Amino acid sequence: MKKRLSPVLWSAYQDIAFSGLNDIVSPTQRKKIIRFNQFIILTLCGNLLSVVSYFTLSLYISALINLTAGYIFILAFHLNARKRYELARIISIVNLNLYLIVMNYMEGLKAGEYLLYFPYFLVMTFVISVQENFRELKFVYLITIVSVLICLNVSPYENYYQVSIVGMFTRLYNSNLAISLVLTTFFSYAILRVNRDNEEAILQEKQFVDTIYNTSLDGVFIMDAKKRIIAGCNNRAVELFELESKREIEGTNIENWFLEDHIKLFNSIEENLARETSKNWQGELAFAAKRRTFFAFVNIVPFLDRGNQFLKISVLDISEIKSAQFELMKAKQKAEVASQAKSRFLSNMSHELRTPLNGIIGASNLLLQETHLQEQISHLEILKYSSEHMMMLINEILDFNKIEAGKLELGVAPVDMREFLKKITVQFAAQAHAKGLKFTTDIDSLDMEFMTDETRLNQVFSNLLSNAIKFTHQGGITLVARKIFSTSQKATIQFMVKDTGIGVPANKRQEIFESFTQADVNTTRKYGGTGLGLSITKKLVNLFHGDLMLESEEGKGSTFHFTLKLDINENRKHYINEEKVKHLAMFNGVKVLVAEDNAINMSIARRFLTKWGIDVKEAYNGKEAVDLFSKHQFDLVLIDLEMPEMDGLTALGEIKKINPAIPAIAFTAAVYDNMRADLIQKGFKEFVPKPFRPEDLHSKISTLITVQNRA
What we know:
Blueprint: H1 2-17, H2 27-56, H3 60-81, H4 85-107, H5 117-127, H6 134-154, H7 168-214, E1 219-224, E2 229-233, H8 235-240, H9 260-274, E3 281-288, E4 293-305, E5 308-317, H10 319-369, H11 377-405, E6 413-416, H12 417-434, E7 438-443, E8 449-452, H13 454-470, E9 476-486, E10 490-499, H14 521-527, H15 533-543, E11 549-553, E12 557-568, H16 578-581, E13 591-595, H17 599-611, E14 615-619, H18 622-631, E15 636-640, H19 648-658, E16 664-668, H20 675-681, E17 686-689, H21 694-710
Parallel strand pairs: 7-9, 13-14, 13-15, 15-16, 16-17
Antiparallel strand pairs: 1-2, 1-5, 3-4, 4-5, 6-8, 8-12, 9-10, 10-12, 11-12
């Protein structure tokens, strides 16, 4: 029976003591609630014993007062369980003081009820944390002292309101004394237990902090800012300065541990921190250890402790980093010297090699032109080919060296892209046909000039097409140029070189772009080459702000592609085929508003429109166009999309407010996907790309004017 009863009682105690702890995270708050619940349990147990005792002595009024106080304590317990902690404690304190005052008055001082004030003082210390709520504890003590004074002054020595039994006061005094002693003993033990737990927690926390402090990778000094002596240090500081113990550092002047050159620097840092011009300081300082000097990254932080100013100086040894930096600097200097020597060597060697090679190439050409034996032709051609091939290799090595040194700069000059690609096609189509390969092109309408470096762009295509022809034995080569996007200032063009050759294995697709590298040894033996061509080509494309990419399948061919953003030459001269526009129909009496900010484009448009009998009004920005349209009648408007002050789309919107039915043609150099559908949705009827073909413009004007007349 006893074994069964103990777990039941323990479970009931836990349910009461831990009530109100749901969702409580703070350990301090948990302790407060548990202690308060324990206080309620003890108080109710004491009340229960007193009620039994008072009924035994027929002191029914005292029993009723105890029951009333018990109910109020139960109310405080429920408030505490519902997280009304402060209100519950106030009710308990007020209830306990009133209880003692009333009981002392009803029974008289001779009954000894005032003896319960002794454990009550200890109860308050137990329930209220001295460290965290000292003000609250003082306030409660003040209330209690006032209650004691009231009790002693108001209560009679003996009171016979209740039924008197012989020896009642003696029995009451003895029971109150016993209860007071038991409660005082219990709460004294509880307070000692709490203090012991707190002391253990403080010691554990100190041990934890000391462990962190002494296992830090930084050496740490604590310096008294006023006395300028080291008050403490950690184990790492002892190791850094190669000492036996902390006693050799503690109590010494901080200046003893700096190099002379850095003492003044530290003093200035200290002065700045003292004037509060900065909260902390970080930087490099040099220290003098027992057998060495070393550089360290130092962090200095000021702090106050009990009114005294201290500096925490953290020292991280960076001697190895400094040594590595020094070695790196020496290696860099050696590399720069080696690079300069390489450049000088290549420059000198190129001069020395080019001179005899020029002689060999010139002599071989002369011999081929002069009279020679038939059987000598093959030898002379071999001589010419070999010397030219060697010259190409020398050029590749020199180009590679310039790119590596960052000395190769791209030129900027107008390049007619259509003519440029035509020349490339003619040059390599012949080589492909000679090898029995097809050579096809897929080139967009690129009838415009771009500001770029034709020579280096030619070198890129020459390397890619030469490789394509070299590594392709059947099938063909395709040169692709597609305009992806363009505006009046820039165009984005994608270039591709496709072949049906041997392809590149997946594990070699990055390596072939590296210097002096080919797909494998067999490729080098069979096809020759330095392995510099693709490396130079990729670096040249990078100089154009592009990236050379490869898609390949072994045995089926390769595709090299890159995308460039090129500036359009705005000052290009436009050449018109007069034969095509000579016999176009006239538009006599038709009035057209042309809005174009570029004077050259305006001049060309005006020339053709007036030739066709059109009455032209000119506007050089969107605002002028709207003003002109509001003052004159027009059959059609031709509007550039990109203009100052007001762009073409905004201008058209304003024009449509005046005449919603006016047909409009977009005059633009921009190109993007679904452009025609997009412009029609925005209010245009047609668009004419720049540079325009007169016959296209004539055709679109004719269509729109016819539709307008029918309407």
